[in-house]
Amino acid sequence: MPVRRPPHILAFLMVPVLLAPLSGCGKSEPDGPPPPSAESQAAIHDDGGAPRESLGRAIDGLFDETEVGRTDALLIFKRGSIAVERYGAGIKRDTRLQGWGMGQCVTALMIGQLVSDGRLRLDESAPIPEWQRPGDPRGEVTLRQLLQMRSGLRHEESGPPASEPASEIARQSDRMRMLFLDGRDDMAAYAEAQPLEARAGTVFENSAATPVILSDLAARVLSPDPTPDRRRVAVGEYLRNRVLLPLGMNSTLVGYDLKGTMIGSAMVHASARDWGKLGEFLRHTGSVQGAQVLPRRWVQFMLSPSPRNTAYGAGVWLNRAKASEAKGEGGATLFPGMAPANAFACVGEYGQYVIGSPDQLLTVVRLGESDRAQETELHDRLGKLLAMFPGGV
């Protein structure tokens, strides 16, 4: 199956304007909004209680490339069945699509199985040898704090403003350095070498380095042999057998660095339907067709607010305003006031979303590529889409 990678330059397409039929001789203004496109009408298998024409127009809006960027896939699951399914040009049901930051949700599920197996402990010091040296304050960082993005480790996720030259952004962004520059061969070593900039547990900071540290912890307990091939095989088999296959995410491919560490913060590819299965799994608190795959209490932990940012759980964003303690954060990642309070989402860079809304019996998947301005418009349109479905805020 092909792997879809976003291009560096977006291709902007002209979108034809559809006019509603005019009534009355010489009248120049349409009577109402344009009807949904044929593509969106065909994409709706079940309106799920939403106004069908409004839903169709909302789908069209999410494929408006000028406003929201390139949408490769939009799926809506209602009561576990696909209600809406539409793909962009060149994309098929089985095309593997990049999830970017949504990979941290997959990583958190793997860590949950290791905790359930007794191979990692949530409230003990993270077993990283370099942190266990006498006097090293990083020895106080627990697995729970890592999962909740409050380790206190120094990490600059985005670097300077977008107005700065790309080379300067890359140089100052730890995420870019770890994934693509001097840290790329041994990402865990780069992430784990960072000092504390705040006492462990006291400050929230969303960090692409943290899921890489978690992936390294998984490899350490699954493979006593540190050779890269052994680490890759051990983690890959565990992830596949304990997480991906039970969820039905059979298309999923995971990337590793040269040291055999899973790149748990970014390099996870899966079909849109399989990304939807991730949302459905979380919506059902760890069960698939009534069978409990992951302990219910672990998924409840993932969906419970972090003490330092109530808009984040453990690998998952929550539908709440961001806490003021969150370093460099403002506004809301999700849709307070537009969707039920218990809605949640796995969110990735460039506009990747897997949104679950238990009260509405919904899972919504959007995959594609949006720039920063387009992401703002995309976010607003996704919130309005959710608000169309019954279930109450």
Describe the protein's topology.
Elements: E1 3-4, H1 38-43, H2 52-61, H3 65-68, E2 70-78, E3 81-87, E4 96-98, H4 103-116, H5 143-147, H6 166-172, H7 174-180, H8 187-192, H9 209-222, H10 228-247, E5 253-254, E6 268-270, H11 272-283, E7 287-288, E8 291-292, H12 296-302, E9 317-318, E10 344-348, E11 352-357, E12 362-369, H13 372-387
Parallel strand pairs: 1-4
Antiparallel strand pairs: 2-3, 2-12, 4-6, 5-6, 7-8, 9-10, 10-11, 11-12
Description of the molecule:
The protein is of the alpha+beta class and 393 residues long. The protein is 33% helix and 13% strand. It is built from 13 helices and 12 strands. The protein has helices at residues 38-43, 52-61, 65-68, 103-116, 143-147, 166-172, 174-180, 187-192, 209-222, 228-247, 272-283, 296-302, 372-387; strands spanning 3-4, 70-78, 81-87, 96-98, 253-254, 268-270, 287-288, 291-292, 317-318, 344-348, 352-357, 362-369. Strands 3-2-12-11-10-9 form a 6-stranded antiparallel β-sheet. Strand 2 (70-78) and strand 3 (81-87) form a beta hairpin. Helix 4 (103-116) packs across helix 10. The longest helix has 20 residues, at 228-247. The radius of gyration is 22 Å and the shape is globular. The two termini are 39 Å apart. The relative contact order is 0.15.
